[in-house]
Amino acid sequence: MLSVKSLFQEIIDDDESFALFCSIAAGGESQGGWENARIAALVPPSERTLAPKIARHGADEDKHGRIFTALMRRRGLAPVPVPPDTDYTMLLERGGIGLSHDRLRAERTLTVQDVVTYLSHSRVTEQRAAEQMALLRRHFAAHPDIGRAVRMIADDEDNHLAYCHEELLRLARAGHGPAIQRTLRACALAEIRVYRDVSLAVMAHMGRILGWSRARSAVLAAGIRAVYAWERFAGWRRMVSLKTPERRDALGGPATAAPEYA
Fold it and tell me: Residue 236's closest CA among 177, 196, 208, 209?
């Protein structure tokens, strides 16, 4: 029977597909670490109190990249090249979502609107990350090889999402509400397209590695497109709502250490 758990179990059990999965994840997390570090260094004077939280966010992302790399190393595997069509962060940037790498490489202080753009982008992408990790935690929290990593990363992603809600609400109260809502909507609609395309690409690569039948691949592709249709119709709205999080000041302290094996 085809299920989310059986699908991930099949990917995890095969060395080649596991290396690709971890390499894609590690690459995206490491990229997020660099982006947050640059943003923390460039925040405007009026938002300097935000810099340590952004830096903490980046440190968490770097940690996640190291964890995925360590999971491969434990099995005697090396990272593999990430196919361009599976590079979620790169495709989002190409779509004009978030702050461009050219902007982040420039030694020029960001504006408050740049901070709004960054936090809106993060609120949308962290929603996706938190949901994905919640799914993995539900099925693999007790897994002997990846369970500890899944639990730690899932907890971090929940913190990141809470932080985005809290900071965007603060900026909305300061008068940036209309800009935040416009930016959130644009980010959400772009993200769901990128997520659909990346999901189709990842499943195509996994199917070739694992020898899936055409029928199975077609069912998975249809499921991905069905999710996109729902998200395009209404599901994107969950990515643009803002509410006071249960976790307050979620990134107010130092980053937690990676597991010992990392």
Answer: 196
E strand or H helix at 251: none
Angle between helices 112-140 and 4-13 (to 10 degrees): 90
Helix axes 112-140, 177-210, angle to 10 degrees: 40
3: tokens are 């299920």
Of 183, 182, 219, nearest to 200 by C-alpha is 219
**Amino acid type, 60:** D
CA–CA dist 115, 97 (Å, integer): 13
Q: Other C-beta atoms within 10 Å of 189: how many?
A: 16
What crossing angle do the helices spanning 147-171 and 177-210 adopt, rounded to 10°?
160
Mean pLDDT, rounded, for 153-165: 97
How far apart (Å, rounded) are the C-alpha atoms in residues 260 and 146? 13
pLDDT of residue 262: 47
Is the pLDDT score of 1 beyond 80? Answer: no
pLDDT tens, 211-227? 999 999 999 999 999 99
Amino acid at the residue 111: T
Outline where the chain has alpha helix (H). 4-13, 15-42, 51-74, 88-94, 101-105, 112-140, 147-171, 177-210, 214-233
Alpha carbon 87 to its chain centroid, in Å, reads 11
Whether the predicted model's global pTM rises above the 0.90 cut: yes
Residue 44: closest CA among 114, 123, 119: 114
Distance separating alpha carbons of residues 73 and 47, to the nearest angstrom: 40
Residue 246 neighbours by CB under 8 Å, 6+ apart = 162
The one-letter amino acid at 244: T
Q: Which two tokens stand for residue 123?
A: 């609120």
